[in-house]
Each structure stands twice: as structure tokens, then as C-alpha cells.
Amino acid sequence: MLTVTRTIHFCAAHRLYNDSWDETKNREIFGKCSNEGGHGHNYTLKISVSGELDKNSGMVVNVTELRDVLKREIFDKLDHRDLDNEVDFLDGLVSTMENLVIKIAENLEKPFNELDVKLVKLELNESDKNSVTLEL
């Protein structure tokens, strides 16, 4: 089985805040990341898919089609957005990088099935110091 990886970048803002907690508890758990004005990140997302090699094309997936899916399903929905107020698939969740990567994976399941590939790994970096990896 071969794995193909594509990297995309997007910028987004958020506030780490749990509505069921008071300000003191949010500040205790999330620190300055719970500031009312929020903060932003320049995210890097690596998406890895696996599939069978097509003998005719010599590809697991056409990277142009992969690029188009990622633009439509991820970039267009997240780039220069407020994750807490403008991204429907994060409604009701604390906008941590962990929740974000899980919801991204869920959003990619159907379009990747249509490309006949399987999502095997996502790595989301919110900075050069913080990242999360989801292996499926």
C-alpha cells in the first residue's frame, strides 16, 4: 500500500473557552489562550492518504483532485476564519487543535471515499512548538 501526503496552510483565529465554566476556570485551564479577544495561528496541515496504485495512471490519487478536495473541504472553510463563530463543524466544541483535527478527518471521509483513497494520518501544527497527530 502506498501513502501520498499533501500539505496545506491556513490562518485562523480562536479562543479556548468552555461555556460551561466561569472565566476563572477558563483562565486556570487555558491561560492567556482564553482571552476574550482570542488569538490566531498560521496552521500547517499534512494530510496522508493510502490506496492501491492504479496501473494505468501510475498514481494512488490524482494530486490535482486531492488539492481540489482539500481546498473545498478545508481551506475554504477555515482560512481567515474565526473557528468559534464561523466554522459550523466546530459548533459546541472547544476549538483546540485536537478537536479541530478530529473534525477535519470527519469532513474528509466522504470526499476521500469518492477519490477511492483512505485517510490514514493528519498532522496539524498550530505553531512550530505545538502539533497534534491523528492516525487512523
Please provide a written account of the structure.
It is a single chain. This protein is α+β, with helices and mostly antiparallel strands and 136 residues long. The protein has one domain: 2-Layer Sandwich (Tetrahydropterin Synthase, Chain A), CATH 3.30.479.10. It contains four helices and five strands. Helix 2 runs antiparallel to helix 4. The mean pLDDT is 98.
Nutshell version of this structure?
This protein has four helices and five strands, in the order βαβαβααββ. With 136 residues, it is an alpha+beta fold. The chain is elongated.
Terminus-to-terminus distance: 15 Å
Query: What does the largest sheet look like?
Result: 5 strands, mixed
Which strand-content bin applies to the residues?
25-35%
* Structure class: alpha+beta
Count of distinct structural domains = 1
Number of helices: 4
Query: Which class in CATH terms?
Result: Alpha Beta
Instruction: Output the CATH topology.
Output: Tetrahydropterin Synthase, Chain A
CATH architecture: 2-Layer Sandwich
Helix residue percentage: 25-40%
What's the name of the CATH homologous superfamily? 6-pyruvoyl tetrahydropterin synthase/QueD
SSE string = EHEHEHHEE
Specify the overall morphology.
elongated
Q: Supply Rg.
A: 17 Å
Number of strands: 5
Poorly predicted runs: none
What is the typical, i.e. mean, pLDDT?
Answer: 98
Strand order of the largest sheet: 3-1-2-4-5
